[in-house]
C-alpha cells in the first residue's frame, strides 16, 4: 500500500509541475501574440 501511495504522490507532484509549466508557456505565448498584434497594427 505504501508503494502505491508513493507513486500516487509522485504522479500528483509531476502533474502539478507540468500544469505550472503549461500556464507559464500559455502566458508567454499570449504576451508574444500581443506584441505581434501591436507590431502588425503599426
UniProtKB/TrEMBL annotation:
This is Uncharacterized protein. It comes from Asbolus verrucosus.
